[in-house]
Amino acid sequence: MNSQTTPLAPADFNAVKIAGAYMPLTQFGVIDVKGEDAASFLHGQITNDVQHLDASTARLAGYCSPKGRLLGSFLMWRTPDAVRLLIARNVQAAVQKRLSMFVLRSKAKLTDATPEVAAVGFAGDVRGALSGIFDALPDGVHVKVEGPRGALIRVPDAAHRPRFLWVGPQAQIEARLAKLDEKLKRVPEQMWDWLDIHAGEPRITHATVEQFVPQMVNFDVLGGVNFKKGCYPGQEVVARSQYRGTIKRRTALAHVETATPGAELFHSDDPGQPCGLVVNAAPAEGGGVDCLVEIKLAALGNGSVHAGSADGPTLAFAPLPYAFPADA
Questions:
Q1: Residues 264 and 155 placed together within one structural domain of the fold
Q2: Could you give the dihedral angle defined by the CA atoms of residues 267, 271, 273 and 277, in that order, rounded to the nearest 10 degrees?
Q3: How many domains does the chain contain in total?
Q4: Closest CA to 203 of 109, 304, 292, 277
Q5: Beta-carbon contacts of residue 52 (< 8 Å; ≥ 6 apart)
């Protein structure tokens, strides 16, 4: 979600909000974990339950350093022969390399499936177009259907519009893009970044590696952390953040004139030290950028928050589509 150099046109937003749109998603990479120990190996490495991941479900998860800081985040699901991870492309190689170091005696192998796999996002009135590709459509969030053309996953709504993610063999997808053009408007991939931001779903990219424990980016609220599963790198830190005292930092939705992922935030009452960090940003409707920002909860109460410096552009906050737990 780094790109804000190509503004999204009003027609792109209208296609999503009034009709239906699709967008090829090249900002993602795909890691396939194969072998009889694939699920058990991953289960011991990431924040969510892989052992009990069934064939009709996708899950958010994170991969942490021993200090509990996120090295990457992904959506994961089972294919007929692998556990598949959809991850920001600019952190894929580092995450794949690090995970591979811990395979050891496990019968599991990580491969970069990006060259053979394509991902396409759909938003708005898209059921008619998708029903020509898949026999059935998933009806609940993170429900998945699998067919010869790959996986179709319902992901959280954004801007009050339904969204689907199609990930499958590149040849199969490319062969059907022309047909999609007859039914839906093709929009830039930054639209998916904007939609993810409005769904309140952060993504770890190169600019924010090792900056956040999962709760700082709301992964506990979004179902990306299972607190009952066994150990994984950073698990003690993540559990301690959850159970000892309140969580003092969260991720919020904001609009600002300009901001880039990794930029620091400053509060008017304490301009000498940062109070947060931009997690993701995408071109906004009507100009500027919409962003997800990790911030001290105390900084949201009064005063003003600025991007980049104490006298940088002011953030205007908007409600997320979900609530934080009462104890936060």
A1: no
A2: 40
A3: 2
A4: 292
A5: none
pLDDT of residue 5: 52
- 3-state secondary structure labels for all residues of 258-285: CCCCCCEEEECCEEEEEEEEEEEEEECC
Helix (H, G, I), strand (E, B) or coil at 294: strand
Strand intervals (E) in 35-160: 58-64, 70-79, 82-88, 109-112, 117-124, 144-147, 150-158
Please give the pLDDT value at position 3: 42
How distant is the alpha carbon of residue 63 from its chain centre? Answer: 13
Q: What is the pLDDT of residue 328?
A: 44
Summarize the confidence of residues 120-128 as an average pLDDT.
Answer: 97
Which tens digits make up the pLDDT trace of 11-63? 999 999 999 999 999 999 999 999 999 999 999 999 999 999 999 999 999 99
Give domain status of residue 114, yes or no: yes
The answer to pTM > 0.85 is yes
Q: Can you tell me the distance from the alpha carbon of 143 to that of 155, in angstroms, rounded to the nearest whole number? A: 8
Per the domain annotation, does 82 fall within a domain?
yes
- If you count them, how many residues does the chain have? 328
Q: Which amino acid is at 196?
A: D
Rounded distance between C-alpha atoms, residue 64 and residue 61, angstroms: 10
Distance between CA atoms of 261 and 277, rounded to whole angstroms? 8
Is 301 part of a structural domain of the chain? Answer: yes
Provide CB contacts within 8 A for 200, sequence distance 6+. Answer: 156, 218, 222, 251, 253, 292, 320, 321, 322
Task: Determine, yes or no, domain membership for 325.
Answer: no
Tell me the C-alpha distance between 90 and 152, whole Å: 24
Nearest to 84 by CA among 105, 107, 53: 53
